[in-house]
TrEMBL record:
Keywords: Membrane, Transmembrane, Transmembrane helix, Transport. It is a multi-pass membrane protein. The chain crosses the membrane at residues 22-40, 60-81, 93-112, 118-143, 155-174, 186-208, 260-282, 302-319, 331-349, 355-374, 381-403, 423-442. Pfam families: MFS_1. This is MFS transporter. Gene3D superfamilies: MFS general substrate transporter like domains. Residues 26-446 form the Major facilitator superfamily (MFS) profile domain. It is found in: Cell membrane. CDD domains: MFS_ExuT_GudP_like. GO terms for cellular component: plasma membrane.
Amino acid sequence: MTTTSFDESHESDVAKSAIKKVTIRLVPFVALMFFINYLDRTAIGFAEPNGMGDDLALTAAQYGFASGVFFIGYILLELPSNMALHRFGARRWLARIMVTWGIVAVLFTWVQDFTQLAWLRFALGVAEAGFFPGAILFLSLWVPARYRVRVLATFYLAQPLTSVIGAPLAGWLMTHDGVFFGLEGWRFMFLGVGAPAIIVGVIAWFYLADSPNDAKWLNTAEKAWLTDAIAKENATKEGSEEKSGHGLADLKVALSSGRVWTLSAIYFGFIYGLYTLAFFLPTVISGFQEQYDVEFGLVEKGLITAIPYVPAAIVLFLVSKHATKVGVKTGHIAIPAFTGAISIPLALYAGSPQLTIACITVTACSIFAALPNFWTVPTQFLTGAAAAAGIALINTMGNLAGFAAPFVTGWIKDANGGDFKPAFFLVGALMLVSCVLMVALSRRQQVSADERSTTVSAGH
């Protein structure tokens, strides 16, 4: 598995200008939407160890279930939502998704017990369904494949930056205990991170454009170059194994593709690791206080939570830059999976807060180094509505890990007297499986390519 590298110096002035405008005008705004999206879905991780867990009398298993049930609602509507985006247009659909989840996110301010918490998390998943794969598909419709790694890397920077900026922000919001209508700090935090989704969602309705032809900020030549380049790529892909059809035929293409299902399993391993960290790293840090006899304030906890994600953002940028230069290779995905598989269990035996955070930092770097490159793979062989269905299916199946990770981790922790070791070993094992599957998929594609080449040669 590889994408073609390119020499940017050989690109025309029109191409450079078009890509620059898309990168500056469009990508940061979609990344902002993703920033708010990820912050709202993981805000529960900041709230639980800082008042919510005690106020709602949550066990680790209950917290894990409430964290993970979000993904059940998300999964149920993921495919229909992404197909609706393809039909109605990204601008309207992404804006609608954002306003809807913002309303639900604000309602967490007044949650009273575990049952309400679980139902609200389920509703949040329903509201957010389709946003992430829709954003990936939306960006892929704006740039040719050879620029896609760069664009997706810029977009994906929002995820680690959510923890770099969002964790201290959440900590600061939670220090305002009783300041706003007597709300506890963790309740005020939910209000503070939920309201921006409604505001930005309304702005998105007017700011986004569905295609280059609809963008008033591109000149005629730039619109023509982008439209022509993407159309040529789609025409090429329609001659490949996974051809685009219409409606149910497109869904059948995705469901019957072995590559789509393998990519779903690979993504499962990465997302399992990602959400184990997102939902339980604040709890692990809170545990340092008793384990190592130290004391942290709310803002300090937020800053410590952010530490692994600063180098993760840097590594994401550097690896994606390298992948853009040489083309996406198997190693850009398989090697991070392997290093993540080793580093997360090592964190359990580090022996100090500093070494524990250092090992977790390696895991975070590994996950974020792989994900932008991973998402270039489906669009190498899927196009049109089949791409919408395939990307949604990969994200849907992968996000089963979003439910499994917090629920299983919490359950294993309770079953082992509060010990995280068995749960973190499971994270390492799943990331190792992702590594093996990525290598196997690459070899299978290479064999298929060689067989096609031999067949063509024999025909001549």
